[in-house]
Each structure stands twice: as C-alpha cells, then as structure tokens.
Amino acid sequence: QVQLAESGGGLVQPGGSLRLSCAASGSIFRIDAMGWYRQAPGKQRELVATLTNGGSRTYDDSVKGRFTISLDNAKNMVSLQMNSLKPEDTAVYYCNLHVTSTRYGTWRNYWGQGTQVTVSS
C-alpha cells in the first residue's frame, strides 16, 4: 500500500506564492507519473499539471508560466510551486500519483487527501 500526505496549503494574498508538497510512503518501487488537480466550490475537479518519470510536463493554460511541478525522487515527494497566485486559483488541491510497488508489477493510482488554497486580500 502507498500513502500520500499533502501539505503547504493556506491563505495567501493575490500575487503571492505557495508551495504544495505531496509525500509518498509505503511500498514504492517507482513513481511512474504524477499530477496535481484542483476543485473549486461548485465546480468539477480539473487537471492543473502533470509530470512523467521521463520528465515530460504539461500545464493547464490557466497556470502556465506561474506553476511548476517537480519530483524529488530521493524523498518520493512531488511539489507544486505556485507563483503570482490569483483569486481564481482558490480551490482544494489534490496530488495524484501512479506508483509501481514492485519491480515487475504494474502501477496503481493514488490520491492525496487534498489541501485548501485560498487566494484573497
């Protein structure tokens, strides 16, 4: 089994920055892909950023140039650096990891518990 623990959310003024982290623990052989999603009140969950273990990154147009997704392999930690935050970035943010637990196994999908980000003056 794999557990994900998110941290780093909070209240920030427009134009400010936050760094979200998602620490994975448990039976981890390899993190194959990772992503951050967000869900605002009354809206569907949407994809914000993705990163594959080959280093390929994608971002939603609304966050391009402001957010950066990264992986610390040694710590099994995925991060989302968020700069120039806007009120419309307010949402609960969730990390999502595709984790392979054994050398010859296949990956499984795991979600973090979510962390609230509020951008307001």
Element layout with pairings:
Layout: E1 2-7, E2 10-12, E3 18-26, E4 30-39, E5 46-52, E6 57-59, E7 67-72, E8 77-82, E9 91-100, E10 107-111, E11 115-119
Parallel strand pairs: 2-11
Antiparallel strand pairs: 1-3, 3-8, 4-5, 4-9, 5-6, 7-8, 9-10, 9-11
Describe this structure in words.
The protein has 121 residues and is mainly β. The chain is 0% helix and 58% strand. The strands form 2 sheets. Strands 2, 4, 5, 6, 9, 10 and 11 form a 7-stranded mixed β-sheet that branches. A hairpin with a 4-residue loop joins strand 7 and strand 8 (77-82). It starts with a strand and ends with a strand. The mean pLDDT is 95.
Concise overview:
The protein has strands spanning 2-7, 10-12, 18-26, 30-39, 46-52, 57-59, 67-72, 77-82, 91-100, 107-111, 115-119.
- Using only CA atoms, what is the Rg? 14 Å
Number of strands: 11
> Ends: how far apart?
41 Å
Q: Can you tell me the overall shape?
A: elongated
**Helix percentage:** under 10%
- Give, in order, the helices and strands: EEEEEEEEEEE
Low-confidence stretches: none
Q: Tell me the number of helical segments per DSSP (H or I, 4 or more residues long).
A: 0
Largest sheet: 7 strands, mixed
Mean pLDDT over the full residue set? 95
Structural class: mainly beta
Strand content: over 45%
Features:
single chain, four-stranded antiparallel sheet, 121 residues, 58% strand, mainly beta, 11 strands, seven-stranded mixed sheet
